Prior knowledge:
Layout: H1 2-17, E1 24-33, E2 45-46, E3 48-61, E4 66-71, E5 78-81, H2 95-106, E6 114-120, H3 130-145, H4 152-167, H5 174-181, E7 186-191, E8 197-201, E9 207-213, H6 221-239, H7 253-259, H8 266-290, H9 294-310, H10 317-328, E10 332-338, E11 345-351, H11 355-370, E12 375-378, E13 386-387
Parallel strand pairs: 4-6
Antiparallel strand pairs: 1-3, 1-13, 2-7, 3-6, 4-5, 7-8, 9-11, 9-12, 10-11
Helix pairs in contact: 2-3, 2-4, 3-4, 3-5, 4-5, 6-8, 8-9, 10-11
Bound molecules: alpha-D-galactopyranose (GLA).
Amino acid sequence: xxxxxxKSMKVSFEAIYGEGGEIQHYFAPGRVNLIGEHIDYxxxxxxxxxxxxxxxxxxRLRDDHQVSFATLNFDKKVTVELGHIxxxxxxxxxxxxxxxxxxxxxxxxxxxxxxxLYYGNIPNGSGLSSSASLEVLTAVMINDLFxxxxxxxxxxxxxxxxxxxxxxxNCGIMDQFAVGMGKADHAILLDCNTLKxxxxxxxxxxxxxxxxxxxxxxxxxxxxxxxxRGECDKAVAELNxxxxxxYLCNLDSEIFxxxxxxxxxxxxxxxxxxxxxxxxxTLEAKxxxxxxxxxxxxxxxxxxxxxxxxxxxVTGDALDIMVKEARKIEGTIGSRMTGAGFGxxxxxxxxxxxxxxxxxxxxxxxxxxxxxxxxFYVAGVGQGASKI
Length: 388
Ligand code: GLA
């Protein structure tokens, strides 16, 4: 698959930029989060894995200081000078790689120009981290092309910084980390407070990870996302009247229950309750996966979705209907929204023998109930970003 894409990228690259010179190829995956949602920015544990599809880059160095971006996904092409890397609304998707270039320049690293062609097969706005994939891909590519010798975790942090400060979306570290550090057939238990991580083998005997795309784009997601972050900060500030904590996920259930009255607003208290218990669910999910107790893992996934729906309020009709229909299939072990929410995808664990029925019935019912045609992917769990 990767080789076929590389070959056709080379042909398209030469059609756009001309032949000659040394061409190099890079790949970064998308990610799906199994559990641990909306807690990376609350200092919690998350449990994502990298997918086997993602974003490709084909690149060739130039002799000057000009960078040209093109993609097979959209018509928009942009050319910039390295001395003038600025955010521009009209530059659209290229603001992500531009933001990453900015982080290298900010470190005082001197770069030269290059022509790059991207291609991605992660559906945009689906909650599978197409933007983190593009960022980490660009960071890994630049690091290699210019022999910067930066650490992988530094590249991940720079990618997050590009999104936070250049693009202006206040995301946590989970997506960039999963895209940068993914390992085939493993999930990553990441402590977002310390960035310590552990690879956990995905022992899913006879069970598949099914990603169901609601095909509802995450409209308003960024403003709602920032609103949730603000509510969590408010909860911490109120708890700080008595408790010395930095993040909601520093709390265990007992301390939370004994102090939650300090949070005045019921809505804010609900947000905090989600964060505290989601963190505990994630830690338990890791243990149950190691013990191959997939039924309990599925229970925890279901609880996670219900908490995101009722307490954190980031699901919405499309995701709720998809999950409800998924749970009606007998072979479904667990089903929940994944990523930021408000649209995008769900992730379900489904017994192998029920996968076909799942796709057919959930697809049919979802379409009848929402008027939207969904898409389904049987997820393969792949490697993090690299040269290919
Ligand atoms: C988005 C963000 C992540 C994380 C998830 C929710 O994907 O980019 O940092 O907060 O939402 O878990």
